[in-house]
Predict the 3D structure of the following.
Amino acid sequence: MSQRSSAPLAVVTGAASGIGKATLERFVDEGFFVAALDRSQEGLDRLTQSKIGPCIRAFPCDLADVGTLTPLAERIVEELGAPRALVNNAGVCLYADITETTDEMWETSLNTNLVGASALIRGFVPGMREVEGAAIVNVASRNALSSSPRAATYDAAKAALLALTRTLAVELGGDGIRVNAVLPGFIDTPIHGDLLEDRVFVENYLRLIPLNRIGSPADIANIIFFLASDGAAFVTGQGIVADGGQMSGQNYVKVFGERDSFRVRQEPET
Ligand code: NAI
């Protein structure tokens, strides 16, 4: 399989599932050739054997194995050219109380969510400097701004990824490379296991979301594509929260039910 000669290249990590897969499909729809990075060989095989297979090249890798990533990026540039878009999407969330959180968990989380992305960026940036309109999009999380219990390694890694986004926007702006982030809220992907089959959980969670629905992978892929496209040519260093309004505030009536004190108070008639 070879790259379509005139097609721009997008690199997407975590491309075999969920948000990464929807992002890959969106870039293919838009005429890109996509380098799909993932640790799931089975997931990558499914992609390359699908009808969009000719528009994809699979690169199995482990984002936690940081030392392999800069050489991998250099190999991709050698074989396919420099990317116009790099989407650092792969991530891992390891839940544990802080007293149960091991050094190994910190290492896995920080490497997968943060340092791995940085190692790929190091390998791609020299080539991207030569590509007109080049852009990097990092997939952080709503948790970069609003934390959850038992998610210390995830929350810290995603907050750091958002900080890295701003640093690189300033550092690479002069090279014409834009760097932005998307911060998804609750999105229906396999990362949640069977949680979304729990109707009580979903009903309760929806009380927190003004738009009253769980997000879809395509909701996030649309924003990633926008941030990578010329439509966002004057946008860099930004994080777009896409959470159905969850971060904007709580609807007390949805959370606690109707209460007299949530209504306009009227003076009793005398
Ligand atoms: P997912 O589990 O559907 O897909 C993640 C993909 O990344 C999988 O194909 C997996 O094999 C790959 N991956 C994981 N660790 C890897 C590693 N070490 N090396 C290579 N590939 C690896 O998950 P989803 O939901 O699509 O997540 C994508 C990104 O979105 C993650 O960074 C996640 O933290 C973020 N996110 C997801 C939210 C959600 O509600 N689904 C909310 C906020 C952020």
Remarks:
- Residues 14, 16-20, 38-40, 43, 61-64, 89-93, 112, 139, 141, 184, 186-187, 189-191 surround NAI (CB under 6 Å).
- The two ends are 84 Å apart (CA to CA).
